[in-house]
Amino acid sequence: MLGLTLGACATAAPANDTLDPISRLLQERNLTAAPTEESRTTSDAYRRMRDTASDLVLSAMNFLGVPYVRGGNTEASGFDCSGFTRHVFENSVGLLLPRRSAEQATSAGLLDVGRTELRPGDLVFFNTMRSAFSHVGIYVGDDKFIHAPRTGSNVRIEDMRQSYWQQRFDGARRVPGLALKGQVRLPADLLPSAVASPLRAE
C-alpha cells in the first residue's frame, strides 16, 4: 500500500536479505537518504512521506470506537493495543510490525524518539502491566495518542499529559522518514474530556 502513496520507483535497488524489514522497505522506495533542509520544501518524495504520515494518523482515527478484544487484530474482531498499531501500519503504509508491543518497541530499523521530539505517526509505548513496553499507541499530535486501552473499552484518543500516562511513558519509536512534521489539529469532538479519568490499559 505504501507504493500507492509514494508512487512507483523508476529503478529499484537490488534486494538485500540482510536488511531489516523497515530498511528494506525504505530502500525499495528509494527513501534511504534523508532530504536536506534545503530540498525539503521542493522534494516530491518528502512531500509524499509527509502525506503518508498524515494518512496513517487519519487511518488510525477511522477505528475510533472499535471495541478492545484481547488478541484482536482486525476491525471486525476488535483490537488489542498491538493488534491495533500493527493493523494501522500494515494497511496504511504496508509495513508489517511484530505482533506484540514489546517486540514492536525493539524492532530493528525503528528510531528511538524522545518525549519532546514526538511527531504524528510515531509509536508511543507505556509500562502499564509492570512490564516495559507492555502497551502501545500512535501519537496523533497535541500531546494526544490513539490506542486500544483495555477490556470493556474502545479505541480512543487520550492525553499523554495525564499523570497516569506521564508516569508510565516508556519511550517512542519512529519509522525513518515517515513521521509528519508539525501537529495534526484534532476535531474538538474527538478530544478526551479534560475531566475524564484515563482508562487503565492492558
TrEMBL record:
Keywords, sorted A to Z: Hydrolase, Protease, Thiol protease
Residues covered by the NlpC/P60 domain: 50-176
One BP term from GO: proteolysis
InterPro entries: NLP_P60_dom, Papain-like_cys_pep_sf, Peptidase_C40
Keyword Zinc: no
Pfam families registered for this protein in UniProt: NLPC_P60
GO molecular function, a single term: cysteine-type peptidase activity
Family from the record: Belongs to the peptidase C40 family.
Protein name from the UniProt record: Cell wall-associated NlpC family hydrolase
